[in-house]
Design goal:
heterodimer, A: six-stranded mixed sheet, 13 helices, B: MetI-like fold, four-stranded antiparallel sheet
Chain lengths: 275, 352
């Protein structure tokens, strides 16, 4: 609670509704959700598949497909940028935000990296999209981002192609791209789902360090309560396009109020069940 | 790229074609050095001279280390019948001096790969003005072989970009661009080519004509490609890395040129290899009709135009040499294109 008191939200979502028109059918993906993300906070957005977690994430960068219609308000208010409503921003403003103020880490690192470009090239591209500097300077910044993403031997990795890297390293590259422009907010859409347990623990540690060292706010989307317990400060539980519960991570784990949250917690395998 | 060569090497015919093309291009690049005569050098006293044979043994059966040619004598000036004059022997010299030229366009020299000091050497015979067909074939190769590459480069750049824009943005832009390409495609190609050529003045310098031909052929060629690329872009743009590029703020043009189009590269390479023959044939067809490269400049097409009369073709069959050159080039490109398609595009592989 102290977090909220001392801080104003960097990102606040108010009554966000998103629906998709597919072949005369209207699918309501989000039925009016509201929550806030504070500075230097890790907020976990938890829910089952199809509950609207990813849609929320894409709405924040206005990366929704053309057949989507949406309403509501997403306000961005960080040190470097403040925008009244992202949903009504024009393309230039959006490009300025994307990757620069708010960047994104995706679920499947192998699919997110372009197989035809070297790792370094893709980080440099992200930097040059926002900073008017020479390629050499961009390369230095890319190497720095790679170091911050804890990529060993960044000088060598810089010239490698995605297929030459392991899954964990690829995800670190994706994170390096995300932090290359020193954003204020990172949206992580199930960043550890495709990774094995040990690697995923390292990645979570990395996120925690990024938050501490750079003051980044993280919106973490996941269905894995283990991940939530590990790093989240607060939790928002989303179910069928609606927020059913919101609170401190300890609050939710100790005292879940909504039946869906209770089920979610019960669904975790417990050692006591096995023994 | 190395992988592509490996695929070509696997297919024997394609491998052979690859070397044939390399030889042809080298011949064309060094045309002024390899050819014994300049392309416009006329020997009015020897029209339709038959190909000279190269001998190592003279009429007495003596072996000569230096090959030689016999002199030819015009016995019937009306029907251009020549007789070998065995009393005259002209030895062939290598790196001999001849007409001045600029090697690769830079180094002035008068050396030629081979030639005779007296008499004449026509490896593939001479045409109606007594010009050496072998020399003209090499010079003509410069135009005919390069027009395929330049034409494909231009039309594929246009086609890929238009297809990329069309597929990426969709909606109205897609509709307009695709209907436009359909309009271009719905004209019979050859008549469109002639009509476009008719728009421009008939007397242009050879350089202007060269680029005019490239532009005309590209104007016709981009449409089909744009449609295929559009289709591929429609599926590639749904890939996660495109979304990721968008999420870090890359501009649309950059996403198209840097992320989407490179992923169509293997198809582009195959299509380009298979499209080059079309451009060579297009140039030949225009030149054959006298609308392309003008005399005295040589192109395989305008050289063939002298073979249009059946009587000339029957009496002096060596004037068909440029036709054979076209045939070999096109076959080689097609064989390589086929091999590339088999290698790079497993979906199209023939299940035989």
């Amino acid at each position: 609670m102290s977090l909220r008191a001392s801080n104003s939200p960097v990102l606040s979502i108010e009554n966000l509704k998103v629906s998709f028109h597919i072949e005369n059918q209207i699918i309501q993906a989000l039925k009016g959700i509201s929550f806030k993300l504070y500075k230097k906070e890790i907020l976990a957005l938890v829910g089952e598949s199809g509950s609207g977690k990813s849609v929320t994430c894409f709405s924040i960068l206005k990366l929704l497909p053309k057949y989507a219609s949406f309403s509501g308000k997403i306000t961005l208010n960080t040190q470097r940028a403040s925008i009244e409503n992202i949903l009504s921003a024009d393309e230039n403003t959006l490009r300025h935000i994307r990757g620069n103020i708010v960047s994104m880490v995706f679920q499947e690192p192998s699919a997110v990296l372009n197989p035809l470009l070297t790792v370094g090239e893709q980080i440099v591209e992200a930097i040059l999209a926002h900073q008017n500097i020479s390629r050499e300077e961009a390369k230095d910044k890319a190497l720095e981002a790679m170091k911050n993403a804890r990529i060993p031997e960044p000088e060598r990795r810089f010239y490698q192609y995605p297929h030459e890297l392991s899954g964990g390293l690829k995800q670190r590259v994706v994170i390096a791209i995300a932090i290359a422009n020193k954003p204020d907010i990172i949206l992580a859409d199930e960043p550890t789902t495709a990774l094995d347990v040990t690697v995923s623990a390292q990645i979570l540690k990395l996120f925690k360090d990024l938050k501490e060292n750079f003051g980044i706010s993280l919106l973490l989307i996941t269905h894995d309560l283990g991940v939530v317990a590990e790093i989240a400060d607060r939790v928002v539980v989303i179910y069928k396009g609606e927020i059913v519960e919101e609170g401190d991570v300890f609050e939710i784990f100790d005292n879940p109020k909504h039946p869906y949250t209770k089920k979610l917690l019960e669904s975790r395998p417990k050692i006591s069940d096995i023994v | 790229m190395r992988e592509i060569f490996r695929y070509i090497k696997k297919n024997k015919l394609a491998h052979l074609s690859f070397y044939i093309l390399i030889i042809l291009y080298i011949l064309a690049i060094f045309a002024d050095f390899i050819s014994p005569y300049p392309y416009d050098k006329q020997h009015r006293d020897t029209p339709y001279h038959p190909p000279t044979q190269i001998h190592f043994f003279d009429e007495k059966g003596n072996f000569h280390l230096r090959p030689f040619v016999y002199g030819y004598k015009l016995v019937d000036p009306v029907f251009k019948i020549y007789k070998v004059d065995k009393t005259k022997k002209y030895p062939i010299y290598f790196f001999t001096e001849g007409e001045k030229h600029y090697l690769l366009g830079i180094f002035p020299t008068n050396k030629h790969l081979f030639g005779v000091k007296e008499g004449k050497i026509f490896l593939l015979g001479a045409d109606n003005l007594g010009r050496d067909i072998f020399s003209r074939l090499l010079y003509g190769g410069r135009i005919s072989l390069s027009i395929g590459l330049v034409g494909v480069l231009v039309s594929f750049s246009i086609g890929a970009l238009i297809g990329g824009i069309s597929g990426y943005f969709g909606g109205i832009i897609d509709n307009i661009l695709m209907r436009l390409s359909e309009i271009v495609m719905s004209f019979p190609g050859f008549y469109l080519m002639l009509a476009l050529r008719a728009v421009f003045p008939i007397t242009l310098s050879s350089v202007q004509v060269y680029f005019l031909i490239v532009i005309i052929l590209s104007f016709i060629g981009w449409a089909g490609l744009a449609r295929v690329i559009r289709g591929m872009v429609l599926s590639i743009r749904e890939q996660d890395f495109v979304l990721a590029a968008k999420s870090y703020g890359a501009s649309s043009l950059r996403i198209i040129t840097k992320h989407i189009l490179p992923n169509t590269f293997s198809y582009l390479l195959i299509a380009a290899t298979l499209a080059i023959p079309g451009y060579i044939l297009g140039e030949s067809a225009l030149s054959l009709l006298g609308l392309g490269i003008q005399e005295p400049y040589a192109s395989w097409g305008n050289m063939l135009s002298s073979a249009r009369s059946i009587s000339a073709m029957a009496s002096y069959p060596w004037i068909l040499a440029p036709g054979i050159a076209i045939f070999i080039t096109i076959l080689a490109f097609n064989l390589i294109g086929d091999a590339l398609r088999d290698a790079l595009d497993p979906k199209l592989r023939k299940n035989l």
